[in-house]
Amino acid sequence: MKIRGLKLIPLITSIMIIVIVFHKAIEGAIFSSSSTVIDEVAVLLITSMAFFLQLNRGVLKSSFAFIILVGIYLIIISISFGENNSYFAIIGQSFLYLQFFLLLISLSIIHENYPGFVSNTFLIILIVSLLGCIIQIAFPSLFASIFGDTDYILGGDSTSTLRVEGFQKNPNSIGILLSMFMILIMFRPKVIKNRIIRNFVFFFALFMLLDSGSRSAMIFLVVAFIFMSSSIKRKILIASVGFAAIFATGIMEVTYEKTQENIAQIETGTDNKYIRWLMTYHGTMLAIDNFPIGVGAGTFGSAFSHESPVYDRLGLASLASVQEGRGIHDSNYGSIAGEFGVIGLVLFFGLNILFIRQIINRKNMSIYSDFKDNKKFIKTIIFITLLAPFMRPLFSSSYYGVIVSLLILSFIEKSFSSKVITKQN
User: Which whole-number Å values give the CA distances from 395 to 236, 328, 358, 420, in the listed order?
Assistant: First the structure.
C-alpha cells in the first residue's frame, strides 16, 4: 500500500529532470551565474526519492547497492594512493563520476513504481528546447540579454557562424538531446502519435541538430541508423539523404575545417580550444604509468583537479584550458583512465553495459522480449554510451545521464503501450 504523499514523486521527479536539462539557462536568467550546484542538488533529490521508495518496499536493489560500493572504492583508493589531499574534493569528485549511474538506476526505480510519466516529460523537454532554438535564431539580442552571450562558433574568420545552443546554452548539449529524441522516434514512432507532426518534429530537430554543429550528436544519429537498418540498400539510402542534408546546410565543410584544425592542435600539443583529445592521450599515459589504479579522484581532467600537481608533471599546467577548467573533463575516458586507471575503466564501462541491459531486460519487463527491434535498440544504446565518453563527459554529467535515461525509459514505456495495443487487437 502506497503512502499518499508518494503520489507527488512523479511530478517532483519531472521538475528535477527539467531543472537538470535547463540548469544553464536557469543559472543565467535567475542566478546571473554560469555555475551553480542546482543540477547536483536535483540529482541528490531524485536519488533520495528512489532510495526512499526502495526502503518503503523493504528491499534495496542490488544495482543501487553496487553503485554505493563503487563509490566507496573510488574514495578509499583515492585517499590511500591518490595525489589529492582534500577529502572533500575526493568525495565530491567521486559523486560527480557516479551521476550517470545514479540517475539511470534512480529514474528506473521511480519509473517502475510510477510508469507513464517519462516519455511525456521527454516530449515537453524537446518542445521547450526547440522553442529555445527558435527564440535564439529569431531574437538573438533578446536571447543574449536574458541568458548571456554565446562563445560557440563554427569555422574560422571567413566561415564563422554562431552555433544554435537553445536553453541548454551549449550546442553539443542541445544537439545530443535532439539526437536522442530522434533515435526514440526511429525505434518507437508512437511517442508522437500523429504521423505528420512526428515527421515535422523529426526533420525540424534534424535541422536544428545540424545548426548546432555537434559532431558527437551527428555520429550518434548515424550509429542508430546503422543498427536499425536491416538492408544494405536502406543503409545506402539513409546515408545518402543524411549527407545530402549536411552538405545542404554548409555544416559539413565547416566541420571538416574545424576537425583538421583540431588534428593539427593535437599534433603540436599546444591545444587550448580542443583540449579533450590531449586529456584522452595523457589520461591513457597516466593509466599505463600508474597501473592499475591511476592517480586518484580530483587530480586529472575533473572538476576538482584545479592546480593539480599532475598537470605540472605532464607539462599541461600552462594551458589556458587547464588553468580555467574549460573542456578538461569533456573526455570522460581520459579523466577516468588518469584518475582511476585500468580498474576504473573496467568498472565504469562494465557497469554501463550491465545496467542498461538489466533495465531493459529486467524480469518484470519481459513483456518486451519478443520485439524484433529490442536487441537493435540495446546494441545502439550500448554502442553510443561506450563511444560517448571519448567525446563527452557522459558518466560525470547529470545532463547526459538524464537524457540517456529518458531515452531508455521512454523506449520501455512505448514498448509497453505498443504491446498492450497489439494484444488488444
Answer: 33, 14, 18, 34
Task: Using alpha carbons, select from 167, 170, 176, 180 the residue that is nearest to residue 134.
Answer: 167
The model's pTM = 0.86
Residue 404 · residue 104 · CB < 8 Å: yes
Q: Tell me: the pLDDT tens digits for 11-25?
A: 999 999 999 999 988
End-to-end CA distance of the chain: 33
Q: At what angle do helices 99-113 and 398-424 cross, to 10 degrees?
A: 30
Model confidence over 124-159: pLDDT tens digits?
Answer: 999 999 999 999 999 888 888 887 766 655 544 444
C-alpha separations of 155 from 245, 261, 273, 297 in Å: 19, 10, 12, 35
Neighbouring C-beta atoms of residue 8, cutoff 10 Å: 11
For position 229, what pLDDT does the model report? 76
How buried is residue 164: exposed, middle or buried, by Cβ count under 10 Å (0-12/13-18/19+)?
Answer: buried
| 3-class DSSP assignment, residue 169 | coil
Q: Quick: pLDDT tens for 227-242.
A: 887 777 776 776 676 6
User: ∠175-391-171 over CA atoms, to 5°?
Assistant: 25
The values of phi and psi at residue 153, to 5°, are -135, 160
Whether residue 316 contacts residue 278, with contact meaning beta carbons closer than 8 Å, is answered with: yes
CA dihedral 187, 251, 385, 169 (to 10 degrees): -100
Amino acid at 359: I
Cell of 402: 538524464
pLDDT value of position 343: 96
